[in-house]
Amino acid sequence: MIFYKSHLKSAAKKLRKESTKEESILWEKIRRNQILGIRFYRQKPLYGYIADFYAPKINLVIEIDGSQHLETANIEYDLIRSKVLASQGIIVKRYSNNEIRANIDLVMKDLYQYVHYCILNNVNIKGP
Known about the structure:
Blueprint: H1 6-17, H2 21-30, E1 41-46, E2 49-55, E3 60-65, H3 72-87, E4 91-96, H4 97-102, H5 104-121
């Protein structure tokens, strides 16, 4: 079971209502188990953070990074966050807004290959 701070639940709900264009583009491609039957949740509170997308069956977080993630303070924050999630066995894959807008097919190919690898090799796979 994943524990999270209760105040993050309302923050996550607000973020779902205010999705960025890039989040909406990716969500349309991964929602409803479209990648090999793997379910994703959006704006999911995890270990004190809110992940853009989370697939619990394969312990995968997808983050979509805007230009603010290139600022020094945010780079350090993202690194700490990724380490915390990694300590719980969660892999974080990051894509930039530009990648989503300009190359969604390449992003989807990368995600499909990673999910396929996880399923074939029973990597990070959790029970039903």
